[in-house]
Design a protein that fits this description.
544 residues, alpha+beta, five-stranded mixed beta sheet, four-stranded antiparallel beta sheet, 17 strands, 23% strand, elongated, disordered N terminus
């Protein structure tokens, strides 16, 4: 039976216990409260009015954008045929639809409606659609180039924020709970926390720039910071700043307060990460947010102890062996929880094995898994082959262990870089949700109109549903309805399918297969009477 280490039995102060318990309870309460918000992450546009590529007889009074989840609009711009951008500021939110008022009469020609919204996970999403008044014209030029300086700044800020949270706060926790009187590496831990204190507010500014599609030169504008703070990432930054401050106080304050302050800082790491991001925004949030909390705390515990432990062994500082003993005793259950939480989160995000290779998110996960295999293997060798001899005082083994710990730190930094890259990649889970959404289309002519929905809106087996009306939105009792799909640019001849009436007032086509993605021409043939046939058509974009 393993004897309980003396550091685990230190109960000199009941105040420490009460504070620690209260802080952990508060942390979990924050997670539970956060889990009540609805979110799916990385919203995808599923329907627009007017449809992309539509040719209209007159200017619409309003525009509408329907997404796969609720969003918050940030910027909506209408670019006229002469290239003049017109900001649209009057919009309303209704469930998953954003309705935008058109305040001006539009001239004939092709217009571009550009939009930028914020997803529930705190990440901005943008896009554009084209429509024409009267005859189409040459589309106005709209810049859509990736802002690589801003993207690089976001990535660097994320990496340094991870250094502050994991190496800084985790290191402060190691000093308070594992290292005893040892202080080797305190300068490094302090520097890591200071990096986080600088990176956190800068990352908030970068978030605002990305949300509004603004360049780095606009960083000083107040609207940038207000926008960043208004996203869910704003909560991550605020909580992270508090946690970093607690970690710094645990290093600089009185020793009696070091443990509760460090514990509160460690809990703050988990709460900060659970407040935003792909993983925390996934459903079911009652599971994902606590798992992100556990995962973040586990990383901080493990990674934060590495540098102080390695420097203590290298310098053969007083208490280094005791530090090693405490760490090796506690790391096994921590790694078990860390791995379990990471596996469940990965399964929720990726869903299918094919997504590991077919998506950018999955490929980054494969790189991270490769680094983790190397890291776990190295840690296992350290734990089972070197630790016992190092604790016994074998100097050469302690040197080997120090070098091995240094390699672990480098791998951890590489993992931070990979994880920061996820900021720019929607998870396969979000892509699957978007792919399952229908493609909806409104076709309007003088004699008749139709609301068409194709579910799901991607190539493969689909179901088409149609509501047929007269040209003035009245009921139309058609005798027969036929759906015709064609794609001349791919050499695909028209696919004709007769629709049936399921009894709910709509027309339906089952067992329909759309073989390839891209822009298809949809035509609906409506037999009004034995002597009258009305044909209406419009393009529709089918996703891959």
């Amino acid at each position: 039976m393993i004897a309980t280490p003396s550091w685990m039995l230190d109960t000199n102060s009941k105040l420490v216990g009460w504070i620690a318990g209260g802080l952990l309870a508060a942390a979990m309460a924050l997670i539970v409260m956060a889990s009540t918000s609805q979110a799916l992450a990385h919203a995808t546009l599923i329907k627009t009015d007017p449809a992309d590529g539509a040719v209209l007889a007159q200017a619409p009074a309003r525009f509408s954008l329907t997404f796969s989840e609720p969003v918050s609009p940030l910027v909506v711009t209408l670019t006229t045929p002469d290239g003049t951008p017109v900001p649209l500021t009057d919009f309303r939110l209704g469930d998953q639809t954003v309705e935008i008022d058109n305040p001006r009469a539009l001239k004939p020609g092709t217009h571009v409606l550009s939009w930028r919204v914020i997803s529930a996970d705190g990440h901005p999403v943008g896009g554009s659609l084209l429509f024409s008044i009267g005859a189409p014209s040459e589309p106005p030029a709209v810049a859509e180039a990736i802002d690589w300086p801003l993207r690089s700044a976001i990535w660097i800020g994320k990496v340094f924020l991870y250094i502050g949270l994991f190496l800084g706060i985790g290191g402060a926790f190691a000093f308070a709970w594992l290292a005893g009187d040892g202080r080797a590496g305190q300068r490094f831990v302090t520097a890591a926390i200071l990096c986080g204190l600088v990176a956190a507010p800068l990352s908030l500014g970068f978030q605002g720039l990305d949300a509004l599609g603004a360049p780095l030169s606009h960083l000083a504008q107040a609207v940038i910071w207000d926008t960043g703070l208004g996203t869910s990432f704003g909560w991550t930054v605020l909580i992270a700043l508090v946690a970093l401050g607690l970690g710094l106080l645990s290093l600089a304050g009185p020793r009696a307060a070091a443990r509760p302050l460090a514990l509160a800082g460690l809990a703050g790491v988990g709460v900060a990460l659970a407040a935003s991001g792909h993983a925390s925004a996934a459903e079911p949030q009652w599971l994902t947010r606590p798992l992100v909390f556990v995962h973040g705390v586990g990383i901080a515990f493990w990674a934060g102890a590495l540098v102080p432990l390695g420097l203590a062994l290298k310098r053969q500082a007083a208490g280094a062996v005791e530090f090693l003993h405490h760490f090796s005793w506690a790391i096994l259950p921590v790694v078990a929880l860390l791995a379990a939480a990471g596996i469940v989160l990965a399964v929720i995000q990726v869903q299918t094995l094919s997504a590991m290779a077919d998506t950018a998110y999955g490929r980054l996960l494969l790189v991270k898994l490769a680094l983790l295999v190397f890291l776990f293997t190295l840690a296992a060798v350290n734990r089972w082959k070197l630790t016992a001899s190092a604790e016994a005082g074998a100097t050469e083994v302690q040197r080997r262990l120090t070098r091995s710990v240094g390699v672990e730190v480098l791998i951890v930094l590489a993992i931070f870089g990979v994880a920061a890259g996820w900021r720019f990649t929607p998870p396969p889970r979000a892509l699957a949700i978007a792919a399952a959404q229908p493609v909806s289309l409104h076709i309007h002519a003088l004699q008749a109109m139709a609301d068409l929905s194709i579910t799901p809106g991607h190539a493969g087996p689909v179901v088409a549903s149609m509501i047929i009306m007269t040209g003035d939105f009245g009921p139309l009792d058609a005798k027969e309805v036929t759906l015709v799909l064609s794609k001349p640019d791919s050499g695909i001849e028209p696919l004709r399918r007769a629709a049936t009436r399921p009894g709910d007032g709509s027309w339906r086509v089952d067992n329909l297969v759309i073989p390839v993605p891209g822009r298809w021409m949809v035509r609906i043939d409506i037999l009004v009477s034995d002597f009258e046939m009305v044909k209406i058509e419009a393009p529709v974009d089918i996703r891959p």
